Amino acid sequence: xxxxxxxxxxxxxxxxxxxxxxxxxxxxxxxxxxxxxxxxxxxxxxxxxxxxxxxxxxxxxxxxxxxxxxxxxxxxxxxxxxxxxxxxxxxxxxxxxxxxxxxxxxxxxxxxxxxxxxxxxxxxxxxxxxxxxxxxxxxxxxxxxxxxxxxxxxxxxxxxxxxxxxxxxxxxxxxxxxxxxxxxxxxxxxxxxxxxxxxxxxxxxxxxxxxxxxxxxxxxxxxxxxxxxxxxxxxxxxxxxxxxxxxxxxxxxxxxxxxxxxxxxxxxxxxxxxxxxxxxxxxxxxxxxxxxxxxxxxxxxxxxxxxxxxxxxxxx
Length: 316
Prior knowledge:
It contains 15 helices and no strands. The chain has helices spanning 4-21, 26-66, 73-76, 86-93, 95-104, 112-123, 126-133, 139-154, 158-167, 175-188, 206-222, 224-233, 245-260, 266-280, 285-302. Helix 13 (245-260) packs antiparallel against helix 14 and helix 13 (245-260) packs parallel to helix 15 (285-302).
């Protein structure tokens, strides 16, 4: 699920908190950083569980109709295409999802009003009506419908987004990535899938990625004064106080990464932090950061301070 850019962003946020008002307890700050990353998986599990709860609510509505004292014909012979959706069934029976739900103590039991509200929105949607009235059946149709349903009625639900923001404001930076992963998960199921179908992991390489996060955070703190001096030497016409704090942090992280991570190409590091600056700093920051880092990296190369393993990793 998590790529290196998202991990860099999480470290950036942790460093911002550290330098803005840390109590000096590095171990505590590192623990909070790792917890904030792990909670992204909570959001992923909650989205999948929401689909499961929507289906269960639909099943309950069908049973309520059948148990009426004076059921109508449509109550006795309801359209069960939605609750019989093969991909929804696979999600509902998925052992890995159930295990994560139990381990993380995640469910929507206290939020059934929310489930009911969004189910009502779904039932009133053109997408749902078209799907339910289509006489066709099949796994591909069910899968395609569920992908579009998630995109249009769940991922874009203002009601659900507001609720998730109340649960954790930090999730707002993670929602796009998590929703994309949910869609990828839905698409990963096949007619041959069973209740043991795998979910997307949090890390691509847990050991390597966790080490990257911890090392980048720790080394950025340790090298703070050194990286600030390097930046200062290339901004003669700027007072450091005038440089946006986010720009400073991004440049310090980039310099730390170039000095401390021997397997990451210089060009990759430069491009990554310029891209991050487009979303987390001022409109003109990417050009400013690019110019300063180019000068710093050139000096570091000249001083033979950049040590990279592998061909082509120094270029850029």
